[in-house]
Every structure is written in structure tokens, then in C-alpha cells.
Design brief:
137 residues, mainly alpha
């Protein structure tokens, strides 16, 4: 099963968009899936009210942290490099979906849907694989 398929399967099991993306990579990146699930819960629905970043993009960015943070609690050194990668991931996601804000992607104000939740989830998983070089399967 590909990461995109796994993420869609999780979404079909009632995970939100953020949870679906980050949890599809959690074990591979050494994270406890239940902790990732809990951490990602408030980031669904564009951070709860559709006004924030798409949950699938938030999940992709959380995956970046799991993959690339040095995890050094005493003297963290990976932030600057990860901020640069976060910009790349955001742009990659935007190219795939047409935006990054939940309500804009869903066409709440315009009536024109730019990208469905399942397609955003696929784009989030693809973005992780492409930008971070993680195998799709």
C-alpha cells in the first residue's frame, strides 16, 4: 500500500486530514502512532474552523519534524534547515492543490472547490515523499 493509499484509508476510518497524513508516516519515522494521532487532532478542519492551514499540509509539516528534527532538547540546531524545507513543502503542496488555506481549498466563500479533502491528503503524502525523499511504499 502506498503512503497516499494508507493516508486515504486512515481518513476513511475517521482520522482528520492532518492525522491521516502524519500517521501514515509515523511508524516509519520512529514515532508512536497514538501520540502522532493525538498531537495532530486539533489541526484538522483548517485548525478547527477552516480559517487556518489545510490539515493535510499541517500533517506533512509535522512529518518533516519527525524526519528531520535533531530532537536535541538541550541545544537544538535543526530549526533553520527545517524552516527552509517547510517553505519548499508548502510551495510543493500549493502547486498540487491551488492553495494552503482550508476554506479557500474547499471554496467556502467562492463556491469553487480547488481541492477535495481526499485530494489534499494525497497531495500531502506526495509532498512528504517528494520533498523528503521518503519512499512511497
Amino acid at each position: 500500500m502506498t503512503k497516499k493509499e494508507m493516508a486515504i484509508d486512515l481518513h476513511n476510518k475517521n482520522y482528520n486530514c492532518c492525522q491521516a497524513v502524519v500517521c501514515s508516516f509515523a511508524e516509519q519515522l520512529g514515532a508512536d502512532p497514538a501520540t502522532a494521532f493525538k498531537m495532530a487532532e486539533p489541526f484538522g478542519l483548517g485548525m478547527g474552523d477552516m480559517s487556518g492551514r489545510c490539515g493535510a499540509l499541517s500533517g506533512a509539516l509535522m512529518t518533516l519534524g519527525l524526519a528531520k528534527s535533531d530532537g536535541d532538547l538541550e541545544a537544538p540546531r535543526s530549526k533553520a534547515a527545517n524552516y527552509k524545507i517547510a517553505v519548499q513543502m508548502t510551495e510543493c503542496f500549493r502547486r498540487k492543490t491551488g492553495g494552503t488555506i482550508c476554506r479557500e481549498l474547499k471554496g467556502v466563500d467562492t463556491g469553487k472547490v480547488l481541492c477535495s479533502c481526499p485530494d489534499c491528503i494525497r497531495a500531502g503524502a506526495e509532498t512528504v515523499c517528494e520533498v523528503l525523499g521518503i519512499e512511497e511504499e
